[in-house]
Write a structure and sequence with these properties.
By secondary structure, the chain is of the alpha+beta class. It has one domain: Cytidine Deaminase, domain 2 (3-Layer(aba) Sandwich), CATH 3.40.140. The protein has four helices and five strands. A hairpin with a 4-residue loop joins β4 and β5. The longest helix is centred in the first third of the chain and has 15 residues. The protein binds zinc ion (ZN). Zinc ion binds next to α3.
Length: about 140
């Protein structure tokens, strides 16, 4: 995947994170941009509510794509920042999301994150983030 496309995904993840009005408890906004094999890109952010059933940005993004009929995925960019801080920091999927991603993607599915202070892109595969994943 070329750098231009990776940067586009990261920027789309940042843009949706900057529009997040649903992180009232953590004040930690997470944005994700998911690239599908057909080239389409879906974005989403973390959604919190009064219960404990918050939805992470990765899964809210996948929910949009899956309900739209998408089945094959190439990569996701995930970025996050505190609401009182304009800088995004390196953020990787939580354990629950890693399991979710491993079930809906192939082992070489890429996860990108970005750190503003370091001005650095980090890149992983889901197999690296969740080796020996649970499967029936
Ligand atoms: Zn998560």
């Amino acid at each position: 995947m070329n750098n231009e496309l990776v940067l586009d995904l990261i920027n789309q993840a940042k843009n949706i994170a900057n529009q997040n009005f649903c992180c009232k408890y953590s004040n930690f906004t997470v944005g994700a941009a998911l690239l599908c094999q057909d080239g389409s890109i879906y974005t989403g952010f973390n959604i919190e509510n009064d219960g404990i059933q918050a939805i992470c940005a990765e899964r809210s993004t996948f929910a949009k794509a899956l309900t739209d009929g998408q089945k094959d995925f190439t990569a996701i960019a995930v970025v996050a920042r505190k609401l009182d801080d304009q800088l995004f920091s390196k953020t990787l999927p939580c354990g629950y999301c890693r399991q979710f991603l491993s079930e809906y993607t192939k082992p070489d599915f890429k996860i990108y994150t970005y750190d503003d202070q370091e001005n650095k892109i980090y890149s992983y595969t889901i197999a690296e983030l969740l080796p020996e994943s649970f499967k029936f």
